[in-house]
Amino acid sequence: MEALEAHKPKRGRKRTAGGIETRLRQIEDRLPVADPLTRVHLVQERINLQNELANKEEAVDMAALEKDFVSAAKGYGERKGISYAAWRAAGVDANVLRKAGIARTRG
Fold first, then answer.
1. CA–CA separation, 102 vs 95, rounded Å?
2. With b meaning 16 or more CB within 10 Å and e meaning fewer, what string describes 36-70?
């Protein structure tokens, strides 16, 4: 579920690692001359971009995670009382739920 959350599609154009690095250089150039309020915003943006860059570099095998989810989700959901609607609200794709054998039910 954490990988799903971390890798869910975001709106707009995807940022590349090169684009992030370019923006980080721009921030470094602006920091020495920025006023205090702008500086704190730039520092936070730098932290956010560094985290985004680190996450881009981590290779996540979504296919393997999906396979593991499919094999475990139905039993887990039945034991814990997790409905199709709850899985969908958590961001699980309908096709993945179908593969896992979790049926859409009326509630």
1. 10
2. eeeeeebeeeeeebeeeeeeeeeeeeeeeebeebb
User: pTM for the full model?
Assistant: 0.52
36: amino acid identity, one letter: P
| pLDDT single digits (tens) 60-87 | 788 888 999 999 999 999 999 999 999 9
Domain ranges (residues) in the chain:
2-57, 62-100
The one-character DSSP state at 65 is H
The beta strands (E) that lie in the chain are given as none
Any residues with CB less than 8 A from the CB of 19 and at least 6 apart, and which? none
